[in-house]
Specification:
Elements: H1 3-16, H2 24-40, H3 45-59, H4 62-65, H5 70-86, E1 101-106, H6 113-126, E2 131-135, H7 141-154, H8 167-181, E3 185-189, H9 198-211, E4 215-221, H10 226-239, E5 243-247, H11 256-265, E6 269-273, E7 281-283, H12 286-293, H13 299-309, H14 312-323, H15 329-340, H16 345-349, H17 357-362, H18 368-378, H19 382-386, H20 393-402, H21 407-430
Helix pairs in contact: 1-2, 2-3, 3-5, 5-12, 6-7, 10-11, 15-18, 20-21
The structure holds guanosine-5'-diphosphate.
Guanosine-5'-diphosphate binds next to helix 6.
Length: 441
């Protein structure tokens, strides 16, 4: 996502960076490129014009002209203005204290409403909430079945709606059941149509009156670009949205919808869908997204992903071991498993500052390599895992045979483990300072 925009902006910034002074002409030329890059990314025309004029005004001000690094200052201004354009700070779900609170998901057919209902339910469950999925698309029995199936997979209860029921009856029964069973959040998956139409809007308005939801979120397909922005406008007019979720941001979407939806509709983009799986949902952080677009990476999201999949107690025990240089092959294997549980290595690398898609596609990361490494470590005896130095010729042969690999593979693993250990030792000696240069700030 945003790769083309990112590449174009970085090419422009390269020209600005490193200059001792910046003339007005150079700034104008640079901003012309930025504007073209935004339009090519399908950013709304008026939004692009406004953001460029804001950047221009600040770039000609004192903060740049009197700076020793004017190019860097311009980039900082672009970053600030991009974040503001997208909404400044993350706006999550504003769930209140009523039990149950209701979140209504609206949107066109195929936008990803049902998938997103499942994702949100899982997201809330991870936060200790007790979500209850409620399908109300009575026009399409397949949509009801899809949500029931999804709920079953995720272990999240789904109200047993049927096509014969009336909307009002479903709403009342679902609320009553939530009260009885202690479900605190109703996630209502509403009907979609192929286009915005009056019948659909009337049904949603009616439903909203009955449910009185705390959040009315539009689910829109990011691939449709400015159409998504227009659709948001139409839904907002009818049902007064509280926010937007853009799906399919993992695809070829140029990003224009994400960049302009807040500026055009005034409604915050709260989450983005980044995959078909139920874990493919990310809270949207404008400042982090601006950082990603400008090629500065997204270290905070990376850290959060790590925190999500790391068991704190285990992490503390590991830290102690690392400090005492007692990090064994067993720990190496466990660490690798926990990194893998965060997602594909290539996706994670995309969050690292300075890493762009081209660099990643050039890398030959074979995820099966991790399976092989795990198999090799599993074929060792506990003693060998604790003291790798005893692994010599005949042991290597036995381990290779046991894990279906070769002695070279075993050697390769031992080498990468000893290198990791060297790094850890260096870190223990020098503290954070020894990692200087690896961090973006
Ligand atoms: P609905 O008609 O609005 O309920 O849409 P669905 O939830 O049935 O989704 C339509 C299609 O989009 C399905 O094939 C989903 O797997 C897919 N989809 C939904 N969200 C995402 C996403 O974030 N990324 C990708 N790649 N596909 C998605």
């Amino acid at each position: 996502m945003f790769d083309n925009l990112s590449d174009r902006l970085n090419a422009t910034f390269k020209k600005l960076k490193g200059r001792g002074t910046l003339s007005e002409k150079a700034i104008d030329e640079g901003l012309k490129q930025v504007r073209m890059a935004l339009l090519e990314a399908d950013v709304n025309y008026r939004v692009a014009k406004k953001v460029i004029s804001d950047i221009h005004r600040r770039a000609l001000g004192q903060e740049v002209m009197e700076s020793l690094t004017p190019g860097q200052q311009v980039i900082k201004i672009v970053y600030d203005e991009f974040s503001t354009m997208m909404g400044s700070a993350h706006e999550g779900l504003n769930l209140g204290n009523r039990v149950p609170e209701t979140v209504m998901l609206v949107g066109l057919q195929g936008a990803g409403k049902t998938t997103t209902a499942g994702k949100l339910a899982l997201y809330l469950k991870k936060q200790g909430k007790r979500p209850f999925l409620v399908p109300v698309d009575l026009h399409r029995p397949a949509a009801i079945d899809q949500l029931k199936k999804l709920g079953k997979q995720l272990g999240i209860p789904v109200f047993d709606s049927t096509q014969e029921m009336k909307l009002g009856d479903i709403c009342r029964a679902a609320e009553k059941m939530a009260g009885q069973e202690g479900f605190d959040t109703l996630l209502v998956d509403t009907a979609g149509r192929l286009h915005v139409d009056d019948g659909l809007m009337a049904e949603l308005v009616e439903l909203k009156k009955m449910l009185n939801p705390v959040e009315t979120l539009l689910v829109a397909d990011a691939m449709t670009g400015q159409d998504a922005v227009n659709i948001a406008g139409a839904f907002d007019k009818a049902v007064d949205l509280t926010g937007v979720i853009l799906t399919k941001m993992d695809g070829d979407a140029r990003g224009g919808a994400a960049l302009s939806i807040k500026a055009v509709t005034g409604k915050p983009l709260k989450f983005i869908g980044v995959g078909e799986k139920s874990t493919g949902l990310e809270p949207f952080h404008p400042e982090r997204m601006a950082s990603r677009i400008l090629g500065m990476g997204d270290t905070l999201s990376l850290i959060e992903k790590a925190q999500e999949s790391v068991d704190l107690k285990k992490a503390e025990a590991l830290e102690k071991k690392l400090k005492k240089n007692q990090f064994t092959l067993e720990d190496f294997r466990d660490q690798m498993a926990s990194v893998r549980s965060m997602g594909s290595i290539k996706d994670l690398m995309g969050l690292i500052p300075g890493v762009n898609k081209k660099m990643i596609s050039g890398l030959n990361i074979d995820e099966r390599e991790f399976v092989r490494i795990e198999a090799i470590i599993n074929s060792m005896t506990p003693e060998e895992r604790r003291s790798h130095a005893i692994i010599k010729g005949s042991r290597k042969k036995r381990i290779a045979k046991g894990s279906g690999s070769t002695v070279q593979d075993v050697n390769k693993l031992l080498k990468s483990y000893t290198q990791t250990m060297k790094m850890v030792k260096k870190f223990n000696k020098g503290g954070m300072r020894s990692l200087k240069g690896m961090l973006p700030f």
